[in-house]
Amino acid sequence: ECAEDLADDGVVYAEVRFAPELLTAGGLSMSQAVEAVLDGFDTDRDIEVNALLCAMRQSDRGPEVADLVIAFRDDGVVGMDIAGPEDGFPASLFADPFATLRAAMCRYTIHAGEAAGVASIADALATCMPERLGHGVRIIEDIRVEGDTAEIGHVAAYVRDRQIPLEVCPSSNLQTGIADSIAEHPVTLLNDLGFAITINTDNRLVSGTSLSREMHLLVEEADWDLQDLHAATMNAIDGSFMSLDDKADLIVNVVQPAWEG
């Protein structure tokens, strides 16, 4: 159903997170849970859905999840993340599982800068070296704006200059109190300052949203235009965990014809 809903919304490629350890109450092992979800993602629609396996921050199963990422790397699992309470459970607690993934040449993203601030982002970057940041919008706390001038702090500069993608979820961020409205959401300033912004939904059901709705809200309430949306789409492709050849194919055969049409 997830794959079908995404396809109905016009999504052609998705990396969907879930925590295997939360899907074992019915007697499945974590490995069986991963197999079941991957089977569900297999659809005849014009969409490719891959999985990001999450370890819960408040548990100790990170090493097991990392092993699952490695085991299923050729079957639709493209990486790992950590989920759950960010405040009090820094990414550094998972430095060893992420090191295991690096040694195996596997990919990963880390939720940081949503419920906790710049220190959480710095901790993730320094100890785990993620390729992307889930949310990451509290990087704005490392930027001081006076009039037309923005003074960018060291952590923010590191993220921007390395073009580490920020997986921004505007509606979800309103629910968690990061901003009071889409118009006031820091994503627009971050975009204007040259950060590698991508637009995402977070939990579609909890936020009652879709990717097309998130983009529509940015256009209607934050004065984004097609160029902004195109840049965010290209950032998403570039930062995705698909192969370089698949990225090129997606751009040439799907994205560019759609934008030019």
Entry summary:
By secondary structure, this protein is an alpha/beta fold.
What does this protein look like?
The protein is of the alpha/beta class. The protein folds into two domains: 1-84, no CATH class; 108-245, Metal-dependent hydrolases (TIM Barrel, Alpha-Beta Barrel). It has helices spanning 2-8, 30-41, 62-71, 95-103, 118-128, 154-161, 170-175, 187-192, 204-207, 211-222, 226-239, 244-260; strands at 13-18, 48-56, 77-83, 109-112, 132-135, 143-146, 149-152, 166-168, 197-199. The strands form three sheets. Strands 4-5-8-9 form a four-stranded parallel sheet. Strands 1-2-3 form a three-stranded parallel sheet, with helices on one face. Strand 6 and strand 7 form a beta hairpin. Helix 3 runs parallel beside helix 4 (95-103) and helix 11 (226-239) packs antiparallel against helix 12. It is globular, with a radius of gyration of 18 Å. The two termini are 29 Å apart.
